[in-house]
Write a structure and sequence with these properties.
Elements: E1 3-10, H1 16-22, H2 26-38, E2 42-49, E3 53-60, H3 63-78, H4 82-85, E4 90-93, H5 95-105, H6 117-131, H7 137-156, H8 166-178, E5 185-189, H9 193-204, E6 209-213, H10 217-226, E7 230-232, H11 237-241, E8 246-249, H12 260-267, E9 275-279, E10 296-300, H13 305-339, H14 343-363, H15 373-400, H16 407-417
Parallel strand pairs: 5-6, 5-8, 6-7, 8-9, 9-10
Antiparallel strand pairs: 1-3, 1-4, 2-3
Helix pairs in contact: 1-3, 5-7, 5-13, 6-7, 7-13, 8-9, 14-15
């Protein structure tokens, strides 16, 4: 019997160091899929690798051997001894594996529930699997069902609406200050992951431009390219303060990056236009005294906690709806998956009918000698039509029983009733 298995690690089961060692790019994933394709006990496979998760989804007839092979493969990819790797891995099988991959695609298993990036990453992993020809009937069906579940979660719930991360919260606060962010200018100080995420959300809300400042100018250029932005040096920060509306800081500096004198000096040229700081650094990047200036708003990471907790509660309520949607899609997939057990019997039944038709045509060959080819084809079509109608009801009956625990009994009766396991010699 075919089993669906998912083995991997995520932000809850493994340290960032372990995830980093196993994380791979698309080229490496293609190589990993090639290795999976060479493992005899694995029928179909998909490999997902992101900053927060690495997992292999596969089907097999030999579960124990297949799991050992995948764990060994992961050990080699990350150069991590299996004894050290295994405690950080999760293993899901059958319905649990189906539910897991649907929850992943729907962003219910993410560090930030509802974040939009994971669905694109799952789709990319599936594209690679199809390109490398490691996906098949089961994984194809499962992934499309997962994408459908994710779409339903996004359209039927508001799980993506409430801010739960620091970056989301920063954007929510900016909207409260300015009401609308259309046309606003943003300065990112620091070029880490949180700053990138904040920039994505700000751009999605309509800000007109983004400037990136980082101690390492090369990194500033890299991040700027992601957003069609402009990179500047740290020495240009004070100049930029004269022009921007929102400043997001997230450096690892032990000293203040933005000081009271800098902002006060810049404000003389701003003509009292509001300036909004979101300081998500620990230790803080913005000198606290800056908040004393008129029309300057400084929020640090502690100020954001209230927004985060409030929106966590909102998302948890929406997550209940999302989990229900996922469970519905799991049931639908399971119903289809169980019909695969009746496929061999249905195929055998159709083959038996075709063998009988061919045998009878062979016996009647001489009787057809005076008939035209069109007449012979008409007789053949009639024979097949009658045969298909006779076996149609048994086929539909088997499909309806596919999710019953007594399915094997129905299959045995069908195979015996139609003598499907007879030797080919008996047909002669």
């Amino acid at each position: 019997m075919v089993k669906i298995i998912d083995i991997g690690m995520n932000h809850e089961t493994a340290s960032v160091e372990q995830r980093e060692r196993l994380a791979t790019g698309s080229d490496s994933i293609s190589k990993t899929l090639a290795f999976m394709r060479e493992i005899d006990c694995i029928r179909e496979g998909l490999f997902l690798s992101t900053c927060n998760r690495i997992e292999a989804l596969f089907t097999t007839d030999e579960a124990v051997e297949a799991k050992k092979s995948i764990i060994s493969l992961m050990s080699k990819i990350g150069n991590i001894p299996e004894k050290e790797l295994i405690p950080s891995l999760f293993v899901f099988e059958d319905a649990d594996a189906v539910r897991h991959i649907m929850r992943v695609a729907s962003s219910l298993d993410s560090m930030v529930v509802g974040e939009p990036q994971i669905l694109g990453q799952v789709k990319e992993a599936y594209v690679l699997a199809t390109r490398e020809k490691t996906s098949g009937v089961i994984i194809n069906r499962l992934m499309h069902r997962s994408f459908h579940a994710a779409k339903r979660v996004r359209t039927e719930t508001e799980i993506c609406e409430a801010a739960v991360s620091i970056s989301y919260s920063a954007v929510e606060l900016a909207k409260k200050i300015f009401h609308m962010l259309d046309g606003k200018k943003v300065l990112l100080i620091g070029a880490g992951e949180m700053a990138e995420l904040a920039a994505r959300h700000l751009i999605a809300q309509g800000v007109s431009s983004v400037v990136v400042a980082n101690r390492t100018f090369e990194r500033a250029v890299q991040v700027a390219e992601l957003f069609d932005a402009r990179a500047v040096s740290f020495e240009e920060i004070e100049t930029q303060l004269c022009d921007v509306d929102i400043v997001v800081t997230s450096t690892a500096s032990r000293e203040y990056v933005v000081t009271y004198p800098q902002v006060k000096s810049a404000f003389k040229k701003r003509r009292n236009r509001p300036l909004f700081f979101v300081d998500i650094a620990v230790p803080r990047d913005v000198q606290p005294e800056v908040n004393k200036l008129a029309n300057v708003y400084v929020y640090d990471i502690d100020d954001l906690k209230g927004v985060i907790e409030l929106n966590k509660a909102q998302r948890q309520q929406e997550a209940v709806k999302a989990e229900r949607i996922v469970q519905e899609e799991v049931f639908k997939f399971e119903r289809w998956f169980k019909t695969l057990e009746v496929v061999p019997t249905i195929v055998s039944l159709k083959d038996k009918v075709e063998d009988i038709i061919q045998a009878e045509l062979k016996k009647s060959h001489l009787s057809f000698s005076e008939l035209s080819q069109d007449q012979i084809e008409t007789i053949q079509t009639l024979m097949r039509s009658i045969a298909e109608k006779i076996i149609n009801d048994p086929i539909l009956y088997l499909k309806r029983k596919a999710d019953r625990p007594t399915l094997n009994s129905y299959l045995d009766v069908t195979r015996n009733l139609f003598n499907l396991d007879q030797d080919s010699e008996d047909m002669e």
